[in-house]
Design goal:
By secondary structure, this protein is of the alpha+beta class. It contains 2 helices and 17 strands. Among the domains are: 58 residues, Hormone Receptor, Insulin-like Growth Factor Receptor 1, Chain A domain 2; 38 residues, no CATH class; 52 residues, Single Sheet (TSP-1 type 1 repeat), CATH 2.20.100. 20% of the residues lie in helices and 33% in strands. The strands form 8 sheets. It has a 3-stranded antiparallel sheet, with no helix packed on it. The radius of gyration is 57 Å and the shape is elongated.
């Protein structure tokens, strides 16, 4: 063993040097060179730092640098996150997204263009004017629809969600608030009053008829019976004097 190589290393190193740091790593750890000023030293890590990707070999596991425009990568040719000013698309970092795609400044990725989507129109509302449905001839009716998918930055914008059109209704008077209910209540009271009046009149009629009938019966009981008038023809018949 070289005099500068030590076997009693710390920090995951299998072999190390006072000047160069780790020279080899313990199993499953990745070897990477870190720059400190003008000097590079070897370190052993459980995973590769940002801007590096890991490769495993039978004798050593190494961390290699990603491409210059890539912040993190899976392999040298497949980036997972781009540096500022670049947009990720299919593992590559691009300054401009391809046709048919748009740049998402939030995720820094090239994404599909999303157009606005709306629901079906609702049925037309009743014909109204100034919040009323009576007391006029011409008014307006409206219908609505909802936005179910908002567009992306380059997508088609959403159309109007309300529509209005003129309408004509049959002219009719508006009942004042509470008047219809009041009229119904008055009609009901009047009907009950008329029924009560008819009932009282019928009761009085029945009572009068019963009283008359009872009076006739009493008169018949107290009045003497009339004698039967004699037959004048019999009184004036001729007397037989032949005997």
């Amino acid at each position: 063993v070289h005099p500068n190589v030590s076997q009693g290393c710390q920090g995951g190193c299998a072999t190390c040097s006072d000047y160069n740091g780790c020279l080899s790593c313990k199993p499953r750890l990745f070897f990477v060179l870190e720059r400190i000023g003008m000097k590079q030293i070897g370190v052993c890590l459980s995973s590769c730092p940002s801007g590096y990707y890991g490769t495993r070999y039978p004798d050593i596991n190494k961390c290699a640098k990603c491409k210059a425009d890539c912040d993190t990568c899976f392999t040298r040719n497949f980036c997972t996150k781009c540096k500022s000013g670049f947009y990720l698309y299919s593992g590559k970092c691009l300054e401009k997204c391809p046709d048919g795609l748009e740049a998402n400044n939030h995720t820094m990725e090239c994404t599909s263009i999303v157009h606005c989507e709306t629901s079906e129109w609702s049925p037309w509302s009743p014909c109204m004017k100034k919040g009323k449905t009576c007391g006029f001839k011409r008014g307006n009716e409206v219908r609505f629809r909802e936005i179910i998918q908002h567009p992306s930055a380059r997508g088609n914008s959403c159309p109007a969600t309300t529509e209005s059109r003129k309408c004509i209704v049959q002219r009719k008077r508006c009942q004042k608030e509470g008047k219809g209910k009041k009229n119904r209540e008055e009609k009901r009271k009047k009907s009950n009053k008329d029924e009560s009046k008819e009932t009282r009149q019928e009761s009085k009629g029945r009572a009068a008829r019963r009283q008359n009938r009872e009076q006739r019966e009493n008169n018949n009981k107290t009045q003497p019976k009339k004698r039967k008038a004699p037959n004048k023809e019999q009184d004036l018949a001729p007397v037989d004097t032949a005997h």
